[in-house]
């Protein structure tokens, strides 16, 4: 990695910042709700608008980049994140932040969908080293996001938004200055290609699995700051440290543990094992929602399981069809983000203001994960196509990157 060019390092730095956006707002959700006099349901819409627009945008990212090139797509994505993160920091109401988070999601979709191909194309020290660098950037971003959110959020809830805007502006300048002209040949992709891809039986079933899986995922990620803050009186920094542990756990298992498992058993078997374990983790979280130590342990343990799920599920998507990987990933991501968009406000509505109901969202999330498991088990014949041998380094990194883009 030390021999990589400045171009590669510039994009890798931008990747770290982009992936930080996944958990950045987690530690400041209670503070936003308190200072802007917003309900938990309104505050959870910060996730919903971001994820919903990201999902819709995934349907067009391959169409855009196939026409204007990778560098322009990266820069447009970065510019949108800079503008909308700054606007969110200056917002006077929770509803304006919700709107600006939607624009942030559009920028993030454009950037993340193009970043890996750009790093590999600009690599001067070999593709393998470039892939390792991309995976390292991904892991750092997922882990640092909540921690930075907690640190800056302990000063003001506006801090994480200002910080993201500044860091992305630096990344924008670095890519303009260091990334060379995009000379790669372009093969235009039809706008309808991702929607048509969902007609494929295996890909369509995987998208349904991902939809129900993401309800469980984002119940744990987006709702947990409220019971933790309510019962344990955790500060933004305390919440940031909790989800820093979650991010580190997720990054470790997605990069190292998932490939080990898929070398020893089929992908569908891994999915069928991990989904009920995740459901059990959420059941424990719901049963002990008033005990801070147990809830924190469930968050970190959930990160370990989520890392495996993200990688294996997205690898399965990569193997499900003969379609271009960008098309298959776009189709699958558009559906899975619907689950992510629905889960946070649904959890807040289920919990309400009654402390006795705070565990209910976790039980519903666990039920959703069991539905995903049933779809896996009943569709083993359809999904047999995904149980191929291990992928090469580039394919594995593409899968990991697509899996973490949520």
TrEMBL record:
<dbReference type="InterPro" id="IPR011701">
    <property type="entry name" value="MFS"/>
</dbReference>
<feature type="transmembrane region" description="Helical">
    <location>
        <begin position="236"/>
        <end position="258"/>
    </location>
</feature>
<feature type="transmembrane region" description="Helical">
    <location>
        <begin position="131"/>
        <end position="155"/>
    </location>
</feature>
<dbReference type="Pfam" id="PF07690">
    <property type="entry name" value="MFS_1"/>
</dbReference>
<feature type="transmembrane region" description="Helical">
    <location>
        <begin position="7"/>
        <end position="25"/>
    </location>
</feature>
<feature type="transmembrane region" description="Helical">
    <location>
        <begin position="294"/>
        <end position="313"/>
    </location>
</feature>
<dbReference type="InterPro" id="IPR020846">
    <property type="entry name" value="MFS_dom"/>
</dbReference>
<feature type="transmembrane region" description="Helical">
    <location>
        <begin position="334"/>
        <end position="353"/>
    </location>
</feature>
<keyword id="KW-0472">Membrane</keyword>
<feature type="transmembrane region" description="Helical">
    <location>
        <begin position="270"/>
        <end position="288"/>
    </location>
</feature>
<feature type="transmembrane region" description="Helical">
    <location>
        <begin position="45"/>
        <end position="64"/>
    </location>
</feature>
<dbReference type="InterPro" id="IPR001958">
    <property type="entry name" value="Tet-R_TetA/multi-R_MdtG-like"/>
</dbReference>
<dbReference type="InterPro" id="IPR053200">
    <property type="entry name" value="YfmO-like"/>
</dbReference>
<dbReference type="InterPro" id="IPR036259">
    <property type="entry name" value="MFS_trans_sf"/>
</dbReference>
<feature type="transmembrane region" description="Helical">
    <location>
        <begin position="202"/>
        <end position="224"/>
    </location>
</feature>
<feature type="transmembrane region" description="Helical">
    <location>
        <begin position="359"/>
        <end position="377"/>
    </location>
</feature>
<feature type="domain" description="Major facilitator superfamily (MFS) profile">
    <location>
        <begin position="7"/>
        <end position="383"/>
    </location>
</feature>
<keyword id="KW-0812">Transmembrane</keyword>
<dbReference type="GO" id="GO:0022857">
    <property type="term" value="F:transmembrane transporter activity"/>
</dbReference>
<keyword id="KW-1133">Transmembrane helix</keyword>
<protein>
    <submittedName>
        <fullName>MFS transporter</fullName>
    </submittedName>
</protein>
<dbReference type="GO" id="GO:0005886">
    <property type="term" value="C:plasma membrane"/>
</dbReference>
<feature type="transmembrane region" description="Helical">
    <location>
        <begin position="104"/>
        <end position="124"/>
    </location>
</feature>
<feature type="transmembrane region" description="Helical">
    <location>
        <begin position="76"/>
        <end position="98"/>
    </location>
</feature>
<feature type="transmembrane region" description="Helical">
    <location>
        <begin position="161"/>
        <end position="181"/>
    </location>
</feature>
